[in-house]
Design goal:
Elements: H1 2-20, H2 25-39, H3 43-60
């Protein structure tokens, strides 16, 4: 259950960053990626966590809508 809570915590930090400091969202995602690669040694868990980080990032990243 702790693994699920940790993934939820990652998503919450990315959401908070998007709301408070959207320009730093990529940096926070890269920091989470570094922490994942440095701290985890079980490949399936690494894959799951990287998917959570980068899918969350792709859904939260600022999008520039072109004006016509």
């Amino acid at each position: 259950m702790a693994v699920i809570y940790y993934q939820v915590f990652i998503v919450i930090t990315l959401i908070a960053t998007r709301l408070l400091l959207p320009k730093l969202l990529l940096i926070v995602a890269l920091i989470w990626t570094g922490l994942t690669l440095f701290n985890l040694f079980f490949p399936p868990l690494i894959a799951i966590q990287l998917l959570v980080i980068w899918i969350s990032y792709s859904l939260l990243r600022p999008r520039h809508i072109p004006t016509s």
